[in-house]
Amino acid sequence: MNDKSATQKAALWVAVVFLLGAALGGTLGYVFAHRVIAAPPQLTDAEKRAQKVQRLTQELNLRPEQQKQLDAIMASVQAEYKAIHQSTDPQINEARQKGRERIREILTPEQKPKFEEFLIRLDEERKKNAQH
Fold first, then answer.
1. SS3 for 118?
2. Domain locations along the chain
3. In angstroms, rounded to a whole number, what is the distance separating the alpha carbons of residues 82 and 77?
4. Mean pLDDT of all residues in 76-92
5. Which is higher by pLDDT, 22 or 100?
6. For residue 102, which of 89, 91, 115, 85 has the smallest C-alpha distance?
7. Overall average pLDDT of the 106-112 stretch
8. Are 19 and 109 contacting, i.e. CB atoms less than 8 angstroms apart?
9. Which of 98, 91, 56 is nearest to 73 (CA)?
10. How far is it, in rounded angstroms, from Cα 104 to Cα 18?
11. Cβ–Cβ < 8 Å for 56, 62
12. In angstroms, rounded to a whole number, what is the distance separating the alpha carbons of residues 62 and 52?
């Protein structure tokens, strides 16, 4: 085998390996970029409560009447949590707005639009998380 033939074979192999790598990389990039990452389904309050009751039933060997009582207790506590959360939401929102105003005061005119865009994204995330 002469040097020219060996060089051509080596060049051919390099080209084949490069093309295969490019094809594989492109395929994997496409797959990962376009796959939908499924978020776990969000449970309702009743479903969360049922899971907790089930877990405690298994761990504590609760009787059926205890399960019903536990479910009622947990439903009552969930309602209290919601009431507390609803009563404090206005105060939290007020503090949040005051903080945002203080931040706006220290920003330059060029930074303020970026901050507002950031807040829009932050508020959208908060709304999305609150729905779950």
1. helix
2. 1-38, 43-131
3. 9
4. 92
5. 100
6. 115
7. 95
8. no
9. 56
10. 52
11. yes
12. 12
